Amino acid sequence: MDDELENGNLGPYADRPRTFPNMRSKAYNPLVRTLNIFRILMGINFRVLLILLFLGLGVVFYIGARTSPIIVFVFSVCIMSFLLSIYLTKWVLSKDEGPPEMVQISDAIRDGAEGFFRTQYGTISKMALLLALVILFIYLFRNLTPQQESSGLRRSTSAFITVAAFLLGALCSGIAGYVGMWVSVRANVRVSSAARRSAREALQIAVRAGGFSALVVVGMAVIGIAILYATFYVWLGVDSQGSMKVTDLPLLLVGYGFGASFVALFAQLGGGIYTKAADVGADLVGKVEQGIPEDDPRNPAVIADLVGDNVGDCAARGADLFESIAAEIISAMILGGTMARHCKIEDPSGFILFPLVIHSFDLVISSVGIFSIRGKPDSSLKSPIEDPMAILQKGYSLTIVLSVLTFGLSTRWLLYTERAPSAWFNFALCGLVGIITAYAFVWITKYYTDYKHEPVRTLALASTTGHGTNIIAGVSLGLESTALPVLVISLSIVSAFWLGHTSGLVDKDGNPTGGLFGTAVATMGMLSTAAYILTMDMFGPIADNAGGIVEMSQQPESVREITDVLDAVGNTTKATTKGFAIGSAALASFLLFSAYMDEVAAFAQEPFKQVDIAIPEVFVGGLLGSMLIFLFSAWACSAVGRTAQEVVNEVRRQFIERPGIMDYKEKPDYGRCVAIVASASLREMIKPGALAIVSPIAVGFLFRILGYYTGHLLLGAKVVAAMLMFATVSGILMALFLNTAGGAWDNAKKYIETGALGGKGSECHKAAVTGDTVGDPFKDTAGPSLHVLIKMLATITLVMAPIFL
């Protein structure tokens, strides 16, 4: 079969079985060894494996017990969530895969996704090892803070700890991405098969598949940081005579956040370029030029498009949410330790470990929300299709209510102190502010991207007068959509800061110190339902793939109607998750910025509490930060454009050279399009990713040299602070615009495809397809990558702060 595909010797469809090319990459790379560990473990005798597992758990719980009972609680909840995710996996995989033609299509998608994943993460792992060596070299020759010197911490120890944390964060982020992709390529065909029976069953399978990925990703982020914290606590003898204080320990974890951000950035860039280049190429030639439906088997780019949903939306989003949670936990732990030290709190462990407990409860309450979505015994194809968004919203509302309750209990348990008996209540209100902010972000994004609401319908109406008016309407919608989220973020930051500021916690001079920690608690509140939000996000690409499998296997129209409804809702849930992610990125970046200023002050041994942009060099640093956002976005979008041009030319070539494709007499060469987007995305992701990593380091080092010769010893650190500040603000606005505009364009097209304004194939529909192709790199490449970029800039400045001084 492979030889026939390469030579193009394909007979008529009627004379051949409907098989698809094996697109599994044969290239070998370092990540294959990591993935093969699981296969090796499966080959070990079950009793031996069980003994090893219990020994490992025993060591983990022993270290946790020597650290704090809170760590033992966190370990217990995470392990229970992993067991629950195993149950969800078995439940999903127990569902039937449907007829052979569905299975063949699913196998092709799975082979393409796993092949690209191995190659992409092999490239990322090599870059991560190179960067780890750079970090090791820098830390071996950097200065230590007075606190670290007094505790007896040596440079070599600090260097190896940071590198180990960086590599562990990178590894866990990669595993999080793999888990997201692994479940999606196996659940898609089962959702397709369930759609032949009922919409509710298909919805339940998609949600539980997404729930498995969400529980693993969040659980891994929490337990990874908890294991690092406990290991360093025991190894360094923290809080013993002449050793490091527990309040300084969280600073050693910043490498973990940087490693997670590093992998997530390249995963999002590579996956985003892959999925959108294939999507744009398939739509422009298939829908606009040839007039064939979406996911039609005659389109040579259709398999590449379906593969892209998994590597771009599932694998990349898993890594994205993983690093979001990791960055927020570490920044909150740093601020909690700093505040506890300034306030002389008798037992600071509650303030430091509070973020781990909140996300442990997140696993519990999100599990309840996931299991609240059940199938109905009397549902069938003949029964009316329920609104999937309403069902998902009920689960989210339940999760929100439980989150409020558990957050209040956690603040009373961990944040109560005799120095300020009512402080815990103020911090509980800060958490409530964050929860309300999350709900507001979900609602705002849904309003601007769901075709049940006016903005998307107005955009669809603009398509009736042509392609140009569609583009104008989409751009204006995206620009307008930045206003409400910014107002919500601003209100939440100010409210949380003042609730913390008035909590009653003061330093030795009587100055209030709880403001920044209040903002940290609000960020935790916003992410306290992260597992359920990620479940809704994973639901989207799974439903999209299911619709493609149904279309390619030529199932009845009634089945396609069900998957179309799920797909449209999936577009909205993906958009809401991106809005949620950028909101949490804004709050987390504010915390990381504060942690950076504290770290600079510790190294410089002088106060560093404000950045004066009236200083010309500092203002230039801000301009460079804003420029970085625009240049990064431009390179990401142009990468999609160049790759899409290759796909368009290839698809056109096949339609010209193989005219029998349109009559089902010749089969398209799907493998050729997969090869084009795979190689191009790996090549194109390097330049914007390198820009993001090198820019803050280069700017800080150059201005450090300038400051040395001009007598301003903190100039490098101040310029980097301005760069970080301006990049965060510009990045938030740009990401909001790109995500919302892209999602609105996509759902305007979906709205017309329901039969409105002329339906499929009309001139209005062609204009909407043009808007959708413009929005594709916005919402799935540049926009999501900015979430990661903002937080990675903050973590890289934390890790590299010593070279700016």
Automatic annotation (TrEMBL):
- Organism name: Carya illinoinensis (Pecan)
Q: Which keywords does this chain's UniProt record carry?
A: Ion transport, Magnesium, Membrane, Translocase, Transmembrane, Transmembrane helix, Transport
Named from the GO MF annotations, one term is:
diphosphate hydrolysis-driven proton transmembrane transporter activity
* Protein name, as recorded: H(+)-exporting diphosphatase
Can you quote a single GO CC term? membrane
**What InterPro entries is this protein classified in?**
PPase-energised_H-pump (IPR004131)
Q: How does it sit in the membrane?
A: Multi-pass membrane protein
Membrane-spanning residues: 44-64, 70-88, 124-141, 161-185, 205-229, 249-267, 351-375, 395-416, 423-444, 483-501, 513-534, 579-597, 618-641, 689-707, 719-738
The protein's location, in the record's own words, is: Endomembrane system
Enzyme Commission number(s): 7.1.3.1
Q: Please give the superkingdom of this protein's source.
A: Eukaryota
